């Protein structure tokens, strides 16, 4: 497969000035907000007039059908209606470039190909912004949803460069990092990083359905993490899994092979321990390859842990003094344990700011048990279940 | 199975005054800190003199062998040496009650039974505090590690009530919620809520080891959550899985059955979509049964979202004013998106404080987009991978 990545800022081409977004959900509405801010004139449509109007009220654009001079159409609808909406707009708007945000690209392209060909087909450029959040719908829309997120664009030799530039400029305008990937490579990748993990999280969570409550009470943070996405919407995920069935099946077959080895090893015949250790070690290797939020490594931010009293006012004093130091806090994590007299707070800052922060806080009398210790996410996170 | 739960406060029996802890890791050192605070005289031993001294320096007790008048011995050593250390101390201290913190109880009890019997065996009471954190070793010890966490105690008819009361009083003194469970029920439960989830997280993460980097770049928060515990220590987990092999095997076999059904459904024959939707829906059902941190439901805290500028000083002003309101912030979550002009901050407070916080912040001119909206963790969390 061939693929290349280009930072949004480096992309060529002007941002389309007239954009029509089909679907006013989380992605469609957020894109409308971001493109409006970027200076484009955005029109919105949704099968739900309420959703479209809500997105418009939030500043995501104007509720209207696509104008004849629309330069770019973005289909941000559920996966199972995306192909027909793409085809519909390719035909309705003979001048427009049409893209979409669906999570599966190969089958979608095949479906579009079955309806349109030639120059008409060349105006379709599939894309997949890897963005989202826990809440759904226009009400959860955010102007910065796509910032520093990967935006996959699938084009081929036949794609007119000026049309490709329109989609690249759009992704860049909302702050995404553009990844040019072939549809099949994209689909096999998301099967591995998203679709198969969703299935396995759901199967693990399903084991809890019939447990006595005294057993579920033993759940720890590890289980909560592994099963968080098991709360995902069955309707949406049935569409996603069916749309990428072959690739998801390949990954699940690999998992089943490893699973069979582990199950066999649990008979504890000679050599079994090496198989068990090997399975956990292979997981270490894979887990360490995962980039952090926004593609940053988990250690991108340095952590400064501060001991604080667990009473009102202390946080205020701490953050006021951090503000005086002129240092921006990227993230904050409070230790959850309750009922303690002393608690601790992790401040996440850019490594370059650590020394100033540490010096400044120490000078102001704060207790920093381990100074600018890096996040140690590789420390046996499931220790809690020993 | 029979099981009952009693809140620590309700437990009877006096806290043992002379406690010996074998193993100065995260659990042993934290227990030493908590029992010392509770007024017990704690002695510590560890195969590593450095670890023992570090724990002592932190206030977890005194480095010494168990005195003859020791009332309670707590073995907090790795699983594979726990049985022999339990037996050793049962024999060395004919008056003492001996317990442990290992994550597998049935096989351990069998191993102890093979070495000791009768009155000697009756002095052993297995337990398993379900506590831990991401960091390991004495350096990560915390006096409040066990607070509001389940502490499983395994006893039977032969257990002398006064000795059982000692262990219950110990668990209660460190703030744990005591759960009386039979060893087999405990082991089958942790296989489901901890051991099998660890295996599946590792197998999912292992799929990433050979991926092209352009593919791994598509990872989102869902994958990070599912695979976080895949960073766990292979040595430790080989011991845990081997120690609970039969129960883990049972759960993994169930997962494989479901997995086979999903793999077959991905051939997309008639009826396939119902199988896929059923698998995700079953995961919803199981996931909803998981209690939150400290056994609290995820909605225990209410969220107040505040719009803030992403510059130094704003956090200080916000927390200073929250402090003025006399409201304690249980947790804080900053929206990670970078480079934005406006960001938002989620303040987690007890529901009773929401109205005061909202009124107070609005009165001070802060923007609260959705006021005291409850956390909605069940909202399609994997939306990000659409």
TrEMBL record, chains A, B:
Please give the catalytic activity noted in the UniProt record: prephenate + NAD(+) = 3-(4-hydroxyphenyl)pyruvate + CO2 + NADH
Question: Quick one: which pathway?
Answer: Amino-acid biosynthesis; L-tyrosine biosynthesis; (4-hydroxyphenyl)pyruvate from prephenate (NAD(+) route): step 1/1
InterPro entries (alphabetical)? 6-PGluconate_DH-like_C_sf, ACT_dom, NAD(P)-bd_dom_sf, PDH_C, PDH_N, Preph/Arog_dehydrog, Prephen_DH
What does the record give as EC number?
A: 1.3.1.12
Query: Which CDD domains does this UniProt record tie to the protein?
Result: ACT
Domain ACT span(s) in chain numbering: 303-381
Q: Which Pfam family is one of those matched by this entry?
A: PDH_C
List keywords of the entry alphabetically: Amino-acid biosynthesis, Aromatic amino acid biosynthesis, NAD, Oxidoreductase, Tyrosine biosynthesis
Origin: domain of life:
Bacteria
- Looking at the record, the residues that make up the Prephenate/arogenate dehydrogenase domain are 17-298
Q: Give the enzyme class.
A: oxidoreductase
Give the family per the record.
Answer: Belongs to the prephenate/arogenate dehydrogenase family.
Name the record gives this protein: Prephenate dehydrogenase
Query: What is the source species?
Result: Brevibacterium salitolerans
């Amino acid at each position: 497969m061939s693929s290349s990545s280009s930072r949004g800022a480096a992309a060529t081409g002007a941002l389309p000035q007239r954009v029509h977004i089909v679907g006013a959900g989380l992605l469609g509405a957020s894109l409308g907000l971001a493109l409006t801010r970027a200076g484009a004139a955005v029109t919105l449509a949704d099968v739900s007039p309420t959703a479209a109007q809500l997105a418009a009220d939030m500043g995501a654009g104007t509720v209207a059908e696509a104008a004849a001079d629309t330069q770019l159409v973005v289909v941000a609808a559920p996966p199972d209606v995306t192909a027909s909406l793409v085809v519909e707009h390719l035909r309705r708007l003979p001048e427009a470039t049409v893209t979409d945000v669906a999570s599966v690209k190969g089958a979608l392209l095949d479906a579009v190909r079955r309806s349109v060909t030639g120059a008409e087909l060349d105006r379709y450029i599939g894309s997949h912004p890897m963005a989202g959040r826990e809440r759904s719908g226009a009400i959860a829309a955010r102007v910065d949803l796509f910032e520093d997120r990967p935006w996959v664009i699938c084009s081929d030799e036949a794609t007119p460069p000026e049309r490709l530039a329109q989609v690249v400029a759009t992704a860049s305008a909302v702050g995404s990092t553009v990844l040019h990937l072939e549809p099949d490579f994209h689909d096999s990748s998301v099967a591995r990083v998203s679709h198969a993990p969703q299935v396995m999280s759901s199967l693990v969570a399903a084991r809890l359905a019939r447990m006595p409550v005294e057993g579920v009470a033993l759940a720890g943070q590890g289980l909560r993490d592994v099963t968080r996405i098991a709360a995902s919407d069955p309707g949406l995920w049935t569409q996603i899994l069916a749309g990428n069935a072959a690739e998801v099946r390949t990954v699940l077959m690999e998992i089943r092979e490893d699973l069979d080895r582990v199950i066999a090893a649990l008979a504890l015949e000679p050599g079994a321990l090496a198989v068990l250790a090997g399975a956990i070690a292979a997981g270490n290797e894979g887990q360490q390859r995962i980039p952090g939020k926004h593609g940053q490594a988990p250690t991108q931010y340095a952590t400064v842990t501060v001991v604080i009293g667990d009473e009102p006012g202390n946080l205020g004093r701490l953050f006021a003094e951090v503000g005086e130091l002129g240092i921006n806090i990227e993230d904050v994590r409070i230790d959850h344990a309750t009922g303690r007299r002393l608690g601790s707070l992790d401040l996440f800052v850019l490594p370059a700011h650590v020394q100033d922060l540490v010096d400044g806080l120490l000078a102001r009398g704060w207790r920093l048990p381990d100074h600018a210790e890096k996040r140690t996410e590789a420390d046996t996170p499931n220790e809690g279940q020993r």
